[in-house]
Amino acid sequence: MARRKEPNGRNMWPLEDVTIVDMCDGVAGSFGTRLLADYGANIIKAEPPEGSALRRMPPFLNEPGPDSSAWHVFLNAGKKGMRLDLLTHEGRELLDRLLARSEALVIDDSSEARLSRGLQPSRLLQRHPHLLVVSVRPYGEHGPYANYKADNLTLQAMGGMMGVNGDPQKEPLSAPGEQASMMAGRNVSIALMAGLLDQGLGEPRGQFVDLSEMECVLCETPFLLGWYAYVGAILARCSNYPRLVLDGDVRPCKDGHVCLAMNSVTKPWEIAATVFDEPGLLDEKFRDHFGRLENWQELDRLATPRLKAYTKQELFRIGLQEGLPVGPVQTVDDLLACPQLHDRGFFHRTADNEAASLLFPGTGIRFDGVGFPKGCHAPSLGQHNREIAVKFLGLPEQRVESLTAKGIL
Amino acid sequence: MFPLSGVRILTIEHIISLPWATLQLGALGAEVICVERLSGLRYRRARPFPEHQPGKTWWNQSARHSYFARYKQSIAVDLAMESGRQLFRDLVAVSDVVCENNRPTAMERLGFGYDQLRTINPAVIMLRLSGFGQSGPWRDAVATGYVIQPMSGFYSMTGYPHSEPMRYEETLPDMLTGWNAALAVMTALWRRRKTGRGLLIDASMYETAVGGLGPALLAKQTGAKGFERMGNSSPEYAPYGCYPCQGEDDWIALAVKTDEEWLRLVEAMGLPLWAQDESLATASGRVAKRELIDDKLASWTREFPKEVIFERLQALGVPAGPVMKAPDILKDPHLKARKAVQWVDHPPEFERVGTKPFPASPYRFSRSRTPQPSVPALGEHNDRVTRELLGYPEGKVRQLEEAHVIGKVPTDEMLARPILPPLEKLIEWGELARVDPNYRALEAIPKSKTKF
Questions:
Q1: What residues of B are in contact with residue A293 (Cβ under 8 Å)?
Q2: What digits encode the pLDDT tens for the residues A200-218?
Q3: Chains A and B: how many Cβ contacts under 8 Å?
Q4: What is the value of ipTM here, to two decimals?
Q5: pLDDT tens digits for range B342-383
Q6: Cα-only R_g, chain A
Q7: CB nearest B432 (choices: A73, A206, A235)
Q8: For the whole model, what pTM was predicted?
Q9: Which of A129, A189, A385, B132 has the fewest CB atoms below 10 angstroms from its CB?
Q10: Which residues of B touch A59 (CB under 8 A)?
């Protein structure tokens, strides 16, 4: 496969010498490989003839179609697309050629599905002893729930995350945007890099990695077990925590909502009293955190009206100037127009023609002197069949045409 | 040998994102040397403490500290003193990676900017993690989880239908950034192995959190719906949400996405007449009658414990999961079978802490080994690092100790001693739901215990 080079050739992308085959249907594995694609890895998205399930996952950008799922567009960006029928002998042969030239494979299917497609890890490792095979499943490979069904919502519940979020008087609340699987995706990328670095220490030695999405969620709520094991306490759901006045709570302002985190800097109340011209904030009864919790209604009466005099961006600017931790509750529109994100080149255009392109978000990491790989296009189904088969696998053109005619490619 | 054996990481870290990043690297076998301060130890004084009582050596007893300090070594150094900064420079010379999450420019003021570190160690990798990154108009804004999370778009999408945006637990952007930063360090290590060159990594918590909502950002630009604030509901599927069960504040999450799963759910409920309405046979029909279904379904789920519904629905192939609290997690047979919770013994310096549970890394390697977790007392590795690693002579180490450049006891020990409100107050204030007086019974639970 052609290696991608930076225009000035000054620096190699960190992972440009790595090829990974991604056969995932779901969010977690696809996000894990997408993160590595951002660092220059060659990711081959090998999909069944009907395309991966991600292509059918709403919402759709513009009209519903195989290339327009927002999830597919985001998670498969920067990958090469290959359509491969593994229910055929020739399809499996082709996969073997592909894996022989790749460092890693990521899968997320059930044991039965693996059997029908010849993707059993033991078989794969026998044929490709150099290969790193990462499996990401809701509950992992083994254990009583290994074959149970799951969804982002049920995983957030079982990982302990939902139980501490939401209004205590209402049902527990999930986080938006498939966060359970997105967290698992970050761990897929870490497991891949760990396996690659371990391979690199000596002779290439493959192995299997078993990753559980539920356990990724469990890691995310760090104080849940600690409070119970150290004190016997069950954490409350804390999304509406009225006693926390200007301390991480959501408060209304002139044009929306804002959060102040006054507990996290020194002398914030002195600053706030001056900025908002409210000397009552310095009353002795609000002197410490406990005093503020005890006298929260009074503090609320003093503070909240002051916030309503300002827009959220005005409050943020005040925070920036005065050293107060102020977080406006930004909408997606705010993010798309955010001066900080644009200044740092966080967004990339999906096409050269600005009018026809979308702002595509980055990863939050910058390597000094190393640009981002070009292109944030997600491939159409089988878009790179020929390129992969001819240039990477070395198949003759005629054979590629024959495989295409049979529907294997 | 571990995946990151031979990699030495030097870190000056504060809550929570960077400690989480370096924990990932330590859990994969990197040698993580945490350069701690001798005063203002914010995380070491954060509750909970064993039995809600900070002991004499309170700085070694916080559960929050133990959570994030696993797999690390601690040296406690006063970097305000030149001899402390020299010690740091000596460590840079023998390290592969230097990590920090101070405010931008703080490291330069100490003389530890990337260009300065490269004069000591030309191939060093430096991870600089901060709220908004090392550049841009918002670079110097104060950033914590409570600031980043609302700004990242999370809150605007979080909340019950027709309600205001809601806060989510503060740690989410920190944890996401920690994972992201750990990946970046490993990627830079891979590159260095090929090129021999170091790298400066600029990690932004804000951007990491925003990037995690990528599909929402793309959808918004084309007018596609799907990321509006609607509680646990889905615009495409029903029933899809969280339903009350028998038991105190017990709930079950249900996600019916296919018509087949709906039929199985109806079967589990005993084929009630209301559920056999033909208009509910399709997803669109069910979405149109979401409220009716949710009411009826909740009446059924209230009759049973969450574990019973979970097993009954899973047996029929319906995605369901109980909302797990800490005791549920500790008793869960699946997590036990997978050793997903690691029990870590704390040494005597930790007084009453004893053996405590923490989530293990969520991946298991078939070949690579991973290290046993340990939690360092403050300055526990001062000797090892100064004498063995840096080869300082005995006299020099004693000088550093006598001048309080290095130490094992906070210099503001009395001043910083945590004062904890009674647990009853924490319940009244809404931080805790309740306290289980029988929690020590978990000590009888068979453990996948880890000693060091």
A1: 425, 429
A2: 656 668 999 999 999 999 9
A3: 558
A4: 0.96
A5: 999 998 878 888 999 999 999 999 999 999 999 999 999 999
A6: 25
A7: A235
A8: 0.95
A9: A129
A10: 215, 219, 224-227, 235
